[in-house]
Specification:
By secondary structure, this protein is mainly β. It contains 4 helices and 32 strands. It is globular, with a radius of gyration of 22 Å.
Length: about 475
């Protein structure tokens, strides 16, 4: 599936885009419109994941396709999305990264009753932030995500951004058996207690990636979203200098990534601007080298032979207008701390769970392999989950996350975006707000957010095996 949203930039349109980026959203007149109505059916289907003619893989789909349909919404305008469940098991939909009412967050038991087979549920919300988001189930997460249930969600800026094309790569990682079908073994103890279910096929927008066709001289906004169960990625664009303009849907100070690597853990999104200055007819690899010794070429930027669209890079700012996030009051913040514990080689900390030489492997038989502050919450969420901590509404929370394990963890908070303050004592630059923060082994990260959204909210690792095996907790805003 090709998510390529073309733009034609006239002089008037370019000036409007540049001017619009400098105008506060509060000064823009409201656009009268009816509620945006969408309908999505969840059901089994087939997808040509490996790109081989005539071969297809049995998957689970949104509206019959993998990934699901790209939902393009308008910032500040209400939407009503009806989800019909055509599976033989319960499901829900979590609108990942959207700051929405608690009842619309899609966590079974905690925020809503699950959507039973052959029934439907209506989600209604008004997205306050423009940016790149996505949607996925939060019931039987490991299996449903692993069988393909994921889709992109884009909230458009009120004013157009000055680019020639707006592209989206939704990246998924699949574990296929020799016959090309999805392998069994979901939730194995080895996956649960180590790096999670890393697959053997990576797709871009649902198919094994071929060359990505580009034209010299064009400016592209590329939205990268990692919808994998567990695979971390670190992308290098050979011969190019990508500029990061947003992380997890939230605009940041435009900057080139450290060492040229765009690190994307499961659930993370990064928006970049690429000025395509290669020679017509040339080809440039996009390489994923996250795992030591296992680098591979994800795809290639293949330039057509046409003359450059323009002789010099587009003369327009690349920064995006900021979203209306409340600023943390750090001087009067409430301090909270959580510690990530467990896993293989993680030093224990889980009562009744041994290591390879102990009572058994962590995560065996669906048991806990991980804990947060000594407490393991397994599964997808359920009624009665005691909050790790409670915040008064509108209080600023200064949250410290310590990773005491030997593994990487992308920690995702529901209902909020967090301003990342420091990593291992060093200030994090570029004013980055994130809903999914990646911690390397033994990392300590400090972040802050304003608790302006009441309800019980999940905070969990987005490596699905880790979440299901206990690396999950709840915070309450009252």
């Amino acid at each position: 599936m090709n998510y390529d949203f073309h733009y034609s930039i006239s002089r008037r349109g370019l000036l409007a885009a540049v001017a619009g980026a400098a105008v506060s959203a509060s000064l823009r007149p409201a656009r009268a419109s009816a509620v945006d109505q969408r309908q999505i059916k969840v059901a089994p289907g087939q997808a040509p994941l490996n790109g081989v003619d005539g071969q297809s893989t049995a998957v689970w789909t949104y509206n019959g396709i993998v990934p699901g349909p790209a939902l393009r919404l308008r910032q500040g305008e209400p939407v009503r999305i009806t989800i019909e469940n055509g599976l033989d098991e319960d499901t829900t939909v979590h609108w990942h990264g959207i700051r929405l009412p608690n009842a619309m967050d899609g966590v079974p038991g905690l925020t809503q009753s699950p959507i039973k087979p052959e029934t439907s549920f209506i989600y209604e919300f008004t997205p306050p932030d423009a940016g790149t988001f996505w949607y996925h189930p939060h019931a039987d997460s490991l299996v449903q995500l692993g069988r393909g249930l994921a889709g992109p969600l884009i909230v458009e800026e009120a004013e157009p951004v000055a680019v020639d094309r707006d592209l989206l790569w939704l990246l998924q990682d699949w574990r296929l058996a020799a016959d090309g079908q999805i392998a069994g073994g979901f939730g194995s103890a080895m996956d649960a207690s180590m790096s999670g279910r890393v697959g053997n096929l990576i797709t871009i927008n649902g198919t094994a990636p071929g060359d990505q066709n580009v034209r010299a001289g064009e400016r592209v906004r590329l939205r990268l979203a990692n919808a994998s169960l567990a695979r971390m990625m670190a992308l290098r664009f050979e011969g190019h200098r990508p500029v990061v303009v947003a992380v997890d849907g939230q605009p940041c100070d435009p900057h080139e990534p450290e060492d040229g690597r765009l690190v994307l853990a499961p659930a993370m999104r990064i928006d970049i601007v690429l000025d395509l200055q290669g020679d017509p007819g040339s080809s440039h690899a996009v390489i994923d080298d996250f795992y030591d010794g296992l680098a591979y070429t994800l795809t290639n930027l293949a330039y057509d032979k046409a003359a450059p669209l323009r002789a010099h890079p587009l003369d327009a700012p690349v920064g995006l207008p900021r979203n209306p996030l409340p600023a943390p009051d750090l001087a009067n913040a409430v301090h909270q701390e959580i510690m990530l514990q467990g896993g293989m080689m993680g030093g224990g900390k889980l009562k009744g769970v041994g290591g390879m030489m102990g009572m058994g492997m962590p995560g065996m038989n669906g048991g806990a392999a991980w804990a947060i502050n000594g407490m393991s919450m397994t599964g997808d969420g359920h009624a009665g989950m005691a909050p790790q901590f409670t915040l008064e509404r509108s209080a600023t929370c200064h949250l410290t996350i310590r990773n005491e394990t030997a593994w990487w963890h992308p920690m995702h908070i529901h209902g909020f975006s967090m301003l990342v303050l420091s990593r291992n004592g060093a200030a994090v630059p570029h004013r980055q707000w994130q809903d999914t923060v990646l911690l390397a082994p033994k990392d300590t990260i400090e972040c802050a957010f304003v608790a302006d959204n009441p309800g019980d909210w999940m905070l969990h690792c987005h490596v699905a095996d880790h979440q299901m095996a206990g690396l999950m907790t709840v915070l309450r805003v009252k």
